[in-house]
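Is pyridoxal-5'-phosphate placement plausible here? Inputs below.
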Amino acid sequence: MISINSGLLTVNLDALVANYQAICDLAPSSRCAAVVKANAYGLGVETIAPVLLKAGCQDFFVATGNEAIQLRALLPTASIYVFDGGVPDTEMELLRHRVTPVLSTPDQVERWLDVANHERPGKKIAVLIQIDTGMTRLGFSEHELRYLTARSDLMERLKIDYVMTHLASADTPDIEFTTGQIRRFDELRRLLPPAPTSIGNSGGILLGSEFQGDLVRPGIALYGGNPSPGTENRMQEVVHLQGRILQIKEIDQMVRVGYGGTHIACPPARLAVVGIGYADGYLRSLGNRGFGCIGDNQTPVVGRISMDMLTVDVSNVPNGQVYEGALVDLIGGGVALDTTADLAGTISYEILTRLSSRLQIRYKRT
Ligand SMILES: *Cc1c(COP(=O)(O)O)cnc(C)c1O
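Reply from A.M.:
I modeled the complex. Tokens:
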């Protein structure tokens, strides 16, 4: 398969579907949504969302109004929820696109009801209510929740599809904190009329049914990231980033490599310049830290990452596998996504969402 670009991003759609099904199996008494914010974690929502729909997913979460409207054009009938609840003055637009807001403040509830009243007088409006149980990000506080529930004029016009909370530490061993969030959630949601719940993100789903709720919201696990780092990754690999070798350097004297000369190559050595750089989303922090892979051989990244190129040491790779145009795995293949993230000092989420539009994406079915 020849690509014109030297950077090639392969997204395995069968692995995506397998991961979706594996998550559904882990949460057998929940509906299983998909979180497709940030362009489906960088992988292309236009392809990812319809594939998940076909796999049986009916509920999709995005972060912003624009993402919701873009998704509505792709999925005319699915439920679409927007985490930010719609910034002020966009409620009408979102309502017309049948987007369901995740509401986190009393003012937000009032704004949506004003618009809904104008558009469809007397009708209830479908919403999710988010409760802050320890993340200290979006969500009703206890005080705000008590205010809302006391306002019967507001309450009687809400149709609460789900009451939701978000776990702050589900991907860490800090199970006590997470259990505390669930306890708090159960306490606070009782202030509202009974409604189905939505709790687990990827990490929460793996913790078991107590941390899932009636609607689970996996993101990273769908895309092959490890939902509980430090343990074996149960998800299939979805993303494979490869770069082509542009030039090979036989090192026969000591030389400095790359900007700032942060690596010294000593003879005998062989280096390969690869056409992927930080502008493609291969983070600059991976300079002198990351590694690629050719076949079964690891090839350490040497020197700094440039905008469009990086250099790997290929001294230990058999001759026949190193040639101009040969592909080097940089994420996926021989290089686990979570390992690259670790080496870059970040998480798989950031690695995926930084993948650049310059990369040529190829979607494959195995
Ligand atoms: C991003 C997000 C998710 C998905 O989280 P993952 O860890 O990727 O599974 C779920 N819920 C909320 C509120 C989010 O912001």
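Short version: The chain has a mean pLDDT of 97.
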